[in-house]
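Lecture notes, unit on protein representations.

Consider one protein chain, 243 amino acids long.
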Amino acid sequence: MGDFRFRQFTVSQDRSALKTGTDAVLLGSIMTLPDTGGVLLDIGTGSGVIALMAAQRLAGCNSPDWRITAIDIDGPSIEDARDNFAASPWAGHLSARHCSLEEFGRDSAEDSYHAIFSNPPYYDNSLPNPDAREAEARHTSTLSYRDILAFAADRLIEGEGILSLILPSEEERRLLRTAASFGLFPFRMTRIRTVEGKAPRRTVAEFRRCNGTRPVCSEEELTLQRDGRKTEEYTELCREFYL
């Protein structure tokens, strides 16, 4: 698959284990970002598309002093991400590191984050993909949302920091239960239907780290297609990204 062109940037992904897909674009469009930018982390960045979407959105924020670090365990994917970051209008705000979340946690033990986001692997007990790199990107053997929750519980700025994840909707109940065990509570849940009348297929779940009063959680829905065409809501959501 060749380059994926957005309005303000291009994603080269020839070396990436996984290519740009709807889940990544949905998370990049929907997730809540800090008004003042701050320090952000993209876990499992792949070609860097979600980090680039975040950078485009942050370019007009209240502070010019923001930075996004993107990490991935797959070396060729990180090479794509680095090239994509360097070619973007926000190169000075973006960096990519080839490492696991565990390694990154050890190397950045003193850092805290205003926002953490991820489109994590979610296949658990299913048959492994014969392509080793794609299996690593899709399956939870090397990274699970529990790992991300544990990291976020330790590193998010309390009360202010945001964790944003996209997962299959059938994982929602287990995700919420696990998040609560780490002191992370939802403040926004966006359930996504592929077509009108069907059950939600994906959920964008957003959490804050709280030791006291839990946040009020807003619940939203998004339908992607109606009568065989993209809905107005979906089109408007991605208007600033898709050509």
